[in-house]
Structure prediction request, 569 residues.
Amino acid sequence: MSTATAVFPSVLTDLGIQWSALEPRYQALQERPLTPENATQFLLDWSDLQREANEAFTILYIRADLNTADAHSREAYLQCIRDLAPRVQSADAALKTRIVQLEGYEPPEDARLILKRFQTEQQIFREENLPLFTELAELSQQYSQLTGSMLVDFQGEQLTVSRVEQLLLSPDRQEREGVWKAWQKARLSIAAKLDGVFLKQLRLRQQLAHNAGFSHFQAYQWKNLHRYDYTPQDCLQFHQSIEQEVVPLARKLLEKHRQGLGVAELKPWDFYWRSQLDSQNRPALQPFKTVEELQSKAEQVFTSLSPELGRQFAQFRQQGAMDLGSRENKMGHAYCAPLTRQKLPFVLQNVVGMSNDVTVTLHEFGHAFHAYTSMKHQRFFWNTLSATEFVEVPSQGMECLALPHLQAFYTPEEIQRITEAQISRVVHVLPWIAFMDAFQDWIYTQDASDITVEKLDQKCRELLGRFQPEPSWAGFEQELGKVWQYYHMFNTPLYYIEYAFSWVGALTLWKHSLQDPQKTLQSYLSAIQLGDSCSVPELYEAAGLQFVFDRQTVHGLMDFLRSQLSDPV
Prediction:
């Protein structure tokens, strides 16, 4: 394993921030006389300090993900979360106590929810949990290292997962089967280690909750994620709506897919929701060959949709605020992380030339535009981006709003094909989201000491049978049981149902855009300026939407998607 220091873009320059530099500034805030008259300035000064500390953490995190084999970057990040992060968290908690206990302070409108969230955080903060957060962050790094270094041995080549997903689009069924089996072999080779990581995380998360006075982690995390506008029971009902309204449509699409492929039974190598083979068995589209070509064409798409978004993308590109190529030892997920001091988003992807890469680029830069715009318009650090229930609307909405503007990548006939692929992707991802949330709902309401690897795998198979009964995994039950070993399970517990909420919003945006594209785009751009300064229902309203996810709403959206198919099912 390489121990050499990797080379990173200038926006990821390690700030080398130390507690010795931050401590006097935190101490000065702690000792500053605090009155209702100067409380807003107190928040602003604290906000500036938070931006610097947060960016330092974020840069180290990204650098570790860009090269999971770089021991220097990994140790720098781990040192930060062991030594610096607990001190910053403790200092922030003390300042939150000061501001929430200040009597007579009437916060300005853009600080109203900040104070509410602070009050919630103070209710659940426990000093004894700080070492547990450190342990959890270290375990997340173990996950990244294990998955980032995993390669798939296929026909004498060592393939990244992104390359595997590309080969799963091959019209050659024998090739698909071979690469899928090789991928599963690689997954199973690290599965036991990932099991160990997760069980440790599970017990630590339960301890966090118990320390804070909660009976289980779900109740703790509900507070931690500031979920003010819905309940766990609402989520269970949403699962049922998806099961009743979306799963039947997904099965119809899969039957059409099976007929198109001309096979007797769909197997996992014939359909994968993240990398969907063409239902007519046509060769996969190749919308670009190089990262440079992807960036150039993406800039054209965003400019066509909105000249302002095109300018922003060009700025991100010029400043090196993205690393999009796939390579060995790079963490395999895609994300956008805000660099809060520079007020610049950074996007990490793993592209290999697939049409799905274009979709992910639209998605991640939807996040990037949201982060950038909110950082520019919101004066408080805590109002960057938005509540998690809305934060995916700008990204998923971008996937839909950009569809008529993809001429740089595709012909008109190919755009229709991509549109139908997008419909299929949404129809199949909603049951996946329901599976992920139902699985976590079960896990985090149990006693962690009762959870075993066998129970995890069995529950995984059970819930997949409910939400994704096809294709058939007969003969691959062991592999099916490990499907739960997914990024969010290890890194963002109980954060997943938000994707489904946001798809309801994004699909409604798409529907509105077909009736009035300019008004819809303007509502989109106005909503992302608000960051996290408004409640979830208010953010949806600003985007011309409603925060609803009942069965009737889901039914109407499935009807809309059917209407956009050239051959409705």
In short: The mean pLDDT is 95. The first strand starts at residue 152 and ends at 154. The beta strands are 152-154, 157-159, 322-325, 335-339, 344-351. Residues 10-139 form one domain.
